[in-house]
Amino acid sequence: MLSPDGPGLRAAAACLAAGGLVAFPTETVYGLGADAASPAAVARIYQAKGRPAFNPLIAHVGNLAAAQAIGRFNDDATRLAEAFWPGPLTLVLPKAARCAVADLATAGLDTVAIRVPAHPVAQAILAAFGQPLVAPSANLSGHVSPTSAAHVQSDLSGRIDLIIDGGPVAVGVESTIVGCFDRPMLLRPGGLPRADIEAMLGRALAQPPADVAVDSSQPLAPGMLASHYAPRTRVRLNATSLEPNEALLAFGGASVRGQEAAAATLNLSPRGDVVEAATHLFSYLRELDARRAKTIAVMPIPSEGLGEAINDRLRRAAVERDFRKPREQ
Ligand code: TXA
Ligand code: MG
Q: Can you give the CATH number for the domain in which 254 is found?
């Protein structure tokens, strides 16, 4: 683990150039970066994360010009990029003719997901390396996304080469993904609220077909596995009362029946602010998971603004799985 100073950034660039894996902060969550053009480096990402190889990665670049070298921008895509980059927005576009991103990173699709992160440390690493980086969230596949360097270390220590510690992230949920097809489509709600995008475009975003989100073999938004972002503890949504031995993930100033007997309580935002709640979501899920309560009960959270992304992640965390891996000691 290194600081994002001169020596740290030089070590990161050298490691990436040698095909290594470097975790670094973005404004949304920590990413696990690798040289996008190197199939061997990309393969190491899948291996380190234990990630299904059909799940494609986001290419990160420093600016719009670098993005135009790997993706074909239509008018909507250009307008979105000019309005919201750098920032928590990923665009899915047809690959450019000489797209440098390895086929393994796009899972063989003829589209590529591109993002220009706003975080100064992500920008500094992209500038030092000088080429596109693929960077999924720096967690074990299916686990909660990391919002601090310590989260990365607890999931990936010994499996990756370097972590650049830039402190806790600002946004806390992953980027919003928009497919720039004939009509722009919301593939994943995220750190940029839908309403901001729709206001800029002057029309509503299309919805992906209902079955795509839960069928991992459909490549339209293949990251939308039903049971993503999952703690080990069972998650119960829209809790209005608490049963014995449940932990409470609270929101706002109200209380629920039985709260005094909670195994643990963390409040995403006592003042009921969804932006603040997003910054705490993944770290609080991790903390409550560690308490080994019977259930993590989650109070209702409004769906406006970043609430759409928060509720999307919580629904995935709450999907019943037919097995639970035994906890590690
Ligand atoms: O905020 C973020 O986006 C973070 C930071 C590190 O940048 N990254 C991130 O990456 O969340 P990841 O790998 O955890 O999620 C990438 C998502 C997946 O759902 C994947 O299926 C989708 O992007 N994706 C990538 N390429 C795609 C494509 N060509 N078509 C459709 N979906 C794509
Ligand atoms: Mg992820």
A: 3.40.50.11030
